[in-house]
Amino acid sequence: MAHRSDESLNDDASYASYDDDSYASYASFDASSSSSENEPQDEYGVNGYMNVNLGELYNNRYKIVKKLGWGVFSTVWAAKDEKRDRWVAIKIFKCDPEFDDVVKTEVEIIKQLMNAAPENANHTINLYDIFKHQSNYGRHVCLVYELLGCHLLKISRIFKHRNKTVPLRLLRKVIRQCMEAFSYIHSKNIIHTDLKPENILIVPDERYIELMLMDNNEETKKLLEEHIYAMFEAGNVQIKIADWGNACWTNKHFSDQIQTFQYQAPEVIIGYRYNTKADIWSLACVFYELATNEYLFDARYDSDDDSYSSDDEEYRNTHLLLDMKHVIGDCPRSFALKGNDSRCYFNHSGKLRAKDIDKSDIGVLEALQNDLDAYTDSRHPEDEVKDFAEFLQYLLVYVPDKRPSAEASLKHPYLA
């Protein structure tokens, strides 16, 4: 449906640095390969980043091996846990006290997922350790995670570079793992709130880690990309859900504005109460994108439209709702008018206020077929395409109370 721009797909731009909103980048093998590889040097010092050197030992056990990336709140490093003989990723926060609440919530949610029923938490990232390190400027909280591989957007790009899309038979295995993960996560009344391909990571094997920790030269990148492609083609991929920094509980929200734009559920747009079903909407958008390398909903119809601004939230949301209408039909009036912001987008009859774009309604199946047909080296069996489209349609229900849960989706014929 909506094209991911070259800028967002550029290897260096998308994977150059760790983003605190996405654990995915810390695991990317080309994490430090661009001009934006380094965090602002003037943000070291008071309330800032901690100086970290390769070879240093932290907490008497973690030997720093390689810088993986950085973000607004922290830097992230690969390290060898010499006590347990395993590889880890250490997220080292700035020593600014204002980040304490961010860390506290992140840790609390991950610990709840790990401790409540460990046997069911195999698709969520493991937090191994927490410690504080005193620098010249203050105390830095350090979170020690398992070392994971690249995110799923990288997988789809690897296929795209070969003029292919991810085979639907392989994608189905990933979808099932995602739904198993969220069946468990949602049973603990936790909402992720920021699902996107960058926040779903793969578990690396020994060869992957070996390549990832090598120098970032072109030969290493090529070898690792080939290894990732072979792993996926063989169906040997296990996923983990990461980035819990924006998560919340069903009975304790931290913000009314959640989710990245292209994966935002309709209830969030209109200001209606949200729950775990918001994650289900995002997952449907993620699955479509992984299959096609295109956004399902994006709303960027006309680049010549001078009235469009990425900062104009109402304009953007209106056109996102229009995009939804073109793919899955009209939003039911009974729901469209329930939100605190509904009147910004719908009239009293429940019709979208915006002038419709000259674009025909096509449905999920046609959108899917159109985007898949763009890749001449991939040919998907017709029945697989139809089954996948039907499953997406099953998930993409406007009314959250009628949208299926992750647990229910596991019983759908597509995954059963």
UniProtKB/TrEMBL annotation:
Q: Which GO terms describe its cellular component?
A: cytoplasm; nucleus
Keyword Transmembrane set for record:
no
What's its EC? 2.7.11.1
GO biological process, any: spliceosomal complex assembly
UniProt keyword annotation of Magnesium present: no
Query: Domain named Protein kinase: which ranges?
Result: 62-415
Q: Which reaction does it catalyse?
A: L-seryl-[protein] + ATP = O-phospho-L-seryl-[protein] + ADP + H(+); L-threonyl-[protein] + ATP = O-phospho-L-threonyl-[protein] + ADP + H(+)
Under the heading Pfam families, the entry gives: Pkinase
Keyword terms, alphabetized:
ATP-binding, Kinase, Nucleotide-binding, Serine/threonine-protein kinase, Transferase
Q: Name one GO molecular function term.
A: ATP binding
**Can you name this protein?**
non-specific serine/threonine protein kinase
Classification of source organism: unclassified sequences, metagenomes, organismal metagenomes
